[in-house]
Amino acid sequence: MRIPGMLQGLTAGTLIALLLANIQGVTAQSQSADDLPLEELRVFTEVYERIQSDHVESVDDEELVRNAIRGMLQGLDPHSAYLAASEYQQLREGTRGEFGGLGIEVGMEDGFIKVIAPIDGTPADAAGIEPGDLIIRIDEQSVKGLDLQEAVELMRGDPGTEIGLSILREGEDAPIEITLKRDVIQVESVRARMLEPGFGYLRISQFQSRTGEDVLEAVDELRHESGSLDGLVLDLRNNPGGVLDAAVGVADAFISNGVIVSTEGRVESARNEFTATPNDILNGAPLVVLVNAGSASAAEIVAGALQDQRRAVIMGEPTFGKGSVQTILPLRNGNAVKLTTARYYTPDGRSIQAEGIIPDVEIANLRVSDRERAAEAVRESNLPRHLQGDSGRSNATDQQAPPQSSLATRDYALAEALNLLKGLNILGN
Questions:
Q1: What pLDDT does 28 receive?
Q2: Dihedral sign of CA atoms 96, 101, 103, 107 in order
Q3: Do β-strands 313-316 and 287-291 pair in parallel, antiparallel, or remain unpaired?
Q4: In this structure, which long-range contacts are made by residues 373-379, counting pairs with CB atoms below 8 Å and at least 24 apart in sequence?
Q5: Quick one: what percent of the chain has pLDDT higher than 70?
């Protein structure tokens, strides 16, 4: 709205009062008083003016308005926010895969900062921060009373500078104190390698603008390296989400037809349905998807689509449950509003919001030691005074446990996914 020259010298509070009077006049002429919360607007104006006149310190009018906008958005849901121009720029940089900070995706819970997931290869990941951790203090400053963007700003800073976090973790009696060093975060969205001949591994740490194309290239490289792909493990653990179009592109790479995801909101532009194109880069080879409590948003879109389309077996833990879509709405002053505009639904019409994706095969995120694996692997031939088989063969190797899987000791869930993938491959043949 353009302010006439005669009004430009007035305070923000006076302008709000004039706007309120104007709203009342319009209401009286064209609509019922019930259509606008006039009493609440009067109270807002009164509180605004009381702050200006009675607060112990003088408060800038523009700052009061910005704070009012932030509070209005923060009260909607944990993901809507008002972004200053610098914050808007940082968000855009994050979708391209390079930004400054700790490398941690966060949300709000009970006034504290809740970790959704650390990003692979970042200071947060190296420090052992886990999904579900609650950040209660940043450099000895309590986060209680801060909105999400204010807390994120505290965690940002120049690369190389240190920051201290106090964390509450389930199962721990006292807060955990962690010191991290900020860095320029360069996120490699897609990594791939062969687990065994014929069986590949594809890790997506975050959905960025190029993730769909990177997945296609990575699978081509795996196929070129191995000669053929008999199956693939897609690892979405601790993937906090990202760009919706990238999630659609990844799911489309493995699905030949049907719905991938749909979104429903109040306005027409928020209602969309995304469908698959006729291709499958694995040509029907088995697919196992690993998820956990840190798999959120776009990662849940992919897992839900592959599960409902019966294209993959989902394995791991129930996912985070963020089933809402945020739209970035630029403003004329260079700032932006991040607003929750829709909920998304899987092909079978399931809402993920606050529910998450329930795996087909649930498996805890365990870490098995070599000693435990050796104990599980004891056989009859390892027992003292065991009877000989018909062949009468007995040698020193019979007295030892078989070699242990290094993959199982490093990543138990991935080892189980590989075993399942092999089984699916045998059944498919």
A1: 47
A2: negative
A3: parallel
A4: 373/404, 373/405, 373/408, 373/409, 374/401, 374/404, 377/401, 377/402, 377/404
A5: 80
Q: How confident is residue 387, by pLDDT bands cut at 50, 70 and 90?
A: low
Region of poorest pLDDT, from 198-207, 275-284, 305-314, 405-414: 405-414
Q: What is the pLDDT of residue 5?
A: 44
Choose, from 322, 324, 411, 422, the residue flagged as catalytic.
Answer: 322
Q: What's the pLDDT score for residue 368?
A: 54
d(CA 293, CA 270): 27
| Strand-strand pairing, 313-316 and 361-362 | parallel
Per-residue pLDDT of 236-288, as tens digits, reads 999 999 999 999 999 999 999 999 999 999 999 999 999 999 989 999 999 99
Q: How many CB atoms lie within 10 A of CB 65?
A: 15
Give how far the C-alpha of residue 160 lies from the chain's centroid of Cα atoms, to the nearest Å: 25
Whole-model pTM: value is: 0.76
Amino acid occupying residue 166: S
Q: Length of the chain, please? A: 429
Residue with tokens 């403003």: 331
For residues 35 and 207, what is the distance between their CA atoms, to the nearest angstrom? 41
In the annotation, is 322 catalytic? yes
> What tokens does 254 get?
């493995």
Active-site annotation holds for 308: yes
* Sequence-separated contacts (24+) of 45-54 with Cβ below 8 Å: 45/13, 45/16, 45/17, 45/20, 48/12, 48/13, 48/16, 49/13, 49/17, 52/11, 52/13
pLDDT tens digits for range 332-361: 999 999 999 999 999 999 999 989 999 999
State the catalytic residue, choosing from 166, 308, 324, 422: 308
Answer yes or no: 422 catalytic.
no
User: Which residue of the set 189, 205, 295, 297 is catalytic?
Assistant: 297
Classify 291 in phi/psi space as left (phi over 0), alpha (psi -120 to 50) or beta. beta
288 touches 312 (CB < 8 A):
yes
CA distance 168 to 174: 7
Both tokens of 134, joined, read: 């609650």
